[in-house]
Amino acid sequence: MGDIGCYCRVSTQEQSLDRQLESTQEYAEGEFDADLGGLRFYRDKSTGTDTDRSDYQQMMTDAESGEIDAVVVHSISRICRSISDLERTASRLEKAGVELHIISEGLTLRPDESDPYQTALFQLLGVFAELEANMAQQRTKEGIAARQQNDDYHHGPAPLGFKKNDGLLIEGDNYHEVVTVLEMVKKDELSKRKAAQRLDTSRATVNRALKRTELYAI
């Protein structure tokens, strides 16, 4: 067994990573009989200056380049923000031949094992990811339809992330970026000021968008 990657993430600068660091280290030492020198710690604090989970990206790069053989996380919520996010992560690690150990939920995904439970789990992750995407798409369509019946829409500018085309409201080029940023603001992972800077708009516009959650399926 090569190096073990221990991934830890918190949502704000003020939160401590200590509990996750201790949990993943103890698990890795017990499960793999690894010493401290064989562990790689990846730490993310989702602040206004680091919204892209840079250590997560580095960990996935290390996994895909063969530098680590297993990833250990304290819980599902630490490594992903949604079912589709988890499905993507698990699939990438599986293709790289890297094990994924999720301590709190007691899940272990081993690419080389022919385990019916594991196969079913991956299939379920894919189904739920597709369902999640379809539900979000439907909520967005319903929100757009409702907005188009509103006089404010007809006489005002298109909401953030949208544009008008022949009197119809359609998604703009930056729609998905807007959704991602608004989700982070709602989860207190990004301030409204930083969100406005990232989207090149005003805090007032961000505030208005947050009151129209039906448009963004958040």
Summarize the structure.
This protein is an alpha/beta fold and 218 residues long. The protein has nine helices and seven strands; from the N terminus they run βαβαβααββααββααα.
Description:
The protein is an alpha/beta fold. The protein folds into 2 domains: 3-113, Resolvase, N-terminal catalytic domain (Rossmann fold, 3-Layer(aba) Sandwich), CATH 3.40.50; 130-215, no CATH class. It is 50% helix and 17% strand. It is built from 9 helices and 7 strands; from the N terminus they run βαβαβααββααββααα. The strands form 2 sheets. It has a 5-stranded mixed beta sheet with strand order 2-1-3-4-5, with helices on both faces. A two-stranded antiparallel sheet has the order 6-7. Strand 1 (3-10), helix 1 (18-32) and strand 2 (39-45) form a beta-alpha-beta unit. Helix 8 (192-198) packs across helix 9 (203-210). The longest helix has 33 residues, at 116-148. The mean pLDDT is 82.
Q: Give Rg in angstroms.
A: 20 Å
CATH architecture of the largest domain: 3-Layer(aba) Sandwich
Strand order of the largest sheet: 2-1-3-4-5
Which of globular, elongated, flat, extended, rod-shaped describes the shape? elongated
CATH superfamily of the largest domain: Resolvase, N-terminal catalytic domain
Q: What is the class of the largest domain in the CATH system?
A: Alpha Beta
For the sheet with most strands, the description reads:
5 strands, mixed
How many structural domains does the protein architecture include? 2
**CATH fold group of the largest domain:** Rossmann fold
Number of contiguous helices:
9
Number of DSSP E strands = 7
Order of helices and strands: EHEHEHHEEHHEEHHH
Structural class: alpha/beta
Rounded mean pLDDT is: 82
Low-confidence stretches: none
Which percent band covers the strand fraction? 15-25%
Q: Residue share in helices?
A: 40-55%
Terminal CA distance reads: 41 Å
